[in-house]
Amino acid sequence: MISRFLLGVGLIGLMLVASFGTYTYLAGRQSKVAVVAQKPTAASPRPNAFTLPGTLYLSQSGAIYSLSFGRFHQLTAQDGWTQPSLFPNNSNLLAVHRLYDHSDVFVLSRFGQPVAQWTSNNASGPDTGARHWSFYPRLSPDQGTLWMSYDEPKVGYDVPLSIWAVPAGNSIRQGKLWTNSIDYTGGDVEPIPLRTGGVMYTKYSRDDNANLTGQLWLAMRPARPANGLTLTTDGAEGQPLTSTDEDCAQPSISPDGGQVAMICTYQKQISYLVLASWNGSSLGPRRVVITDQLVAQPTWAPDGSGIAYLAPGAGASDFQLWFLPKARYNPPPPSPIPVPTPTPGGPYHGPASSPTPAPPVVVPLVKPIQMTTDAGFDATSPLAWAG
Fold this sequence. Notes:
Blueprint: H1 4-7, H2 12-17, H3 21-28, E1 55-60, E2 63-68, E3 71-74, E4 81-86, E5 92-98, E6 103-109, E7 114-117, E8 134-139, E9 145-150, E10 162-167, E11 176-177, E12 188-193, E13 199-206, E14 212-219, E15 239-240, E16 248-253, E17 259-264, E18 272-278, E19 283-290, E20 296-300, E21 306-312, E22 319-325, H4 326-329, E23 369-370, E24 384-386
Antiparallel strand pairs: 1-2, 1-24, 2-3, 4-5, 5-6, 6-7, 8-9, 9-10, 10-11, 12-13, 13-14, 14-15, 16-17, 17-18, 18-19, 20-21, 21-22, 22-23
């Protein structure tokens, strides 16, 4: 299999910005036959079109959009905004503002207005290597800690991202390094802070054939204390939840906390939508629910009605918004076969005949619903969904 690194050679500029393998993986597997992407706001909803519950936040071409009541609204200017995530109480958004040599985490109102800047990664002076990158911001359930991928420690212009936890609104110097990323892989990304403490995240590494592979990991304590300079090597970064053979990434925990949605490639040229039960410390058996699309960024509906995700549309290279109803991965149980009740004292007419078996109950296959056709959303930007 062609490695994600080689597939991403054409995206050198982007690699210098972020260096995370997911971007090159997804970008390298798009068709070159493309329909020109339009702003989501340019499309009018079809009559009687399916409407998602709540408000969904997505990124396209450097701008953040919301989708509610079947209509898109542009919330920010088209100048480097990406990776929105919601405050646990749904009051505000976190988002990344990405420029050519650094990126920062901002607090935005749910209408897109900047409220506060929580990182300051634009170091003064001519040395661009002294500038930093923050990606995938998430708030802890108590809203007191900012979790993110951050490019420290680093050597020269290698930009491995590691997982950091920083008191909300404070300097990175008050933060703690939670994971030790592997050089020249893109590092550790997509942190999900857990209600029980600790964090789930994606770690990238290279297998024996030098292919870049992703694993879901669980870390329950930081790799070193705040302001420390010596990295620990005692396994503090946690334990793997998936294998390198599964090649999984982009975890999303269900609203009830009992399931995880993720994408897994199983070392193939596609990314499956995979579900697994979650008990707070380990994943249960995997259930592959979509096998014929290049799935990205699965996100649970806040009311539990389904899963939204991004995937290329038919005949186009751009990633569109799709919705998978709950009935696809949690179908209703089949109806019991009725058993005839004999009539007491009825006349005897010879040997009893066997009852006619009821026909098998066929649960119809629920297909994903394509919500857009020419929007071209950012497949490296997680979706955020408010109820």
